[in-house]
Each structure stands twice: as C-alpha cells, then as structure tokens.
Amino acid sequence: MRVLLVEDEANILEAIRFILSRDGWEVMAHGTGATALSEVARVRPDVVVLDVMLPGRSGFDILRDLRAADETRTLPVLMLTAKGQSRDRETAMALGADAFLTKPFSNAELVETVRGLLAEGAGQGGGAV
Fold it and tell me: Residue 126 pLDDT > 50, yes or no?
C-alpha cells in the first residue's frame, strides 16, 4: 500500500507520514506542485494525498491533470486544505477528488479516509490490495 503525499509544510508532512506509516502504508513525500505529476508517474502510488496550496502549482491544477490522463483517471485522491471554505470543497469534488479533509483533522479521520479510498479503488479496479 503506497501513498504519495504532496505537501509543502514539513511539520504536516512528517505528521501525516508518521500516522500513515504506523497504519502500514509506505509513504512517499513530495513538497512542490511544479513536479508533482512526474512524481506520481515515478512512484505509481495506490492513493495520492494532495494539498491544495503548493509552491509552483496548485493542487487543483494537479488534480485536473490527473483526471485528464488515462493512467491516473481513477487514481484515488484525497485533497487537503487549510481553508475550510465550502467553495474549495466544491471545486475539489467537481474536479474529481475522491475525498476532502480540512486541516486540522484527526489522526483517525485521516487513516479512515485513506483506507476508504483504497477499498473503493480496489472495488473499481484501481489501487492495490
């Protein structure tokens, strides 16, 4: 079970890495939006956890490109944002996000959401079991 975490804030990145690693995930981290798509292609994750606000390119732009490509169209994506505005959630879901969490979130909520994405992806032919 491999997750690619695209997050530019080091403390949040380390916290999420710890939480998901403890749950059995192999966590790969990437800190910039500009090269996130090439990292997805290189890592080939089962799930992507994607921050909205990133240096170089927004998470929304990255999500749009992931959904436009045949190889990543069904890749489960969890969007994270520090903005709790409903417009951000609506935008993420309209672009094809599978789930959305607002920072701060509970450890249990993060683990449950990522597990759910893997289960849904496996049921649709995507993801790994």
Answer: no
In a domain, 127, yes or no: no
CA distance 50 to 43: 14
Q: Which ranges of 8-106 does DSSP label H, i.e. alpha helix? A: 10-22, 36-43, 59-68, 86-95
Question: What's the DSSP call for residue 49?
Answer: E
Contact call for residues 13 and 7 (beta carbons, < 8 A): yes
Residues 51-72 have pLDDT tens digits of 999 999 999 999 999 999 999 9
Q: Evaluate whether residue 52 is within a structural domain.
A: yes
Asked if residues 20 and 111 have their Cβ atoms less than 8 Å apart, the reply is yes
pTM score, whole prediction: 0.91
**Any bridge partners for residue 61, and if so which?**
none
* Domain assignment of residue 39, given as a range: 2-106
Q: Could you give the number of structural domains in the chain? A: 1
> How far is it, in rounded angstroms, from Cα 76 to Cα 124?
10
Is residue 59 domain-resident? Answer: yes
- The encoded tokens of residue 59 equal 């998470």
State in Å, rounded, how far the first CA of the chain is from the last one. 7
- Quote the tokens at residue 43: 């890592």
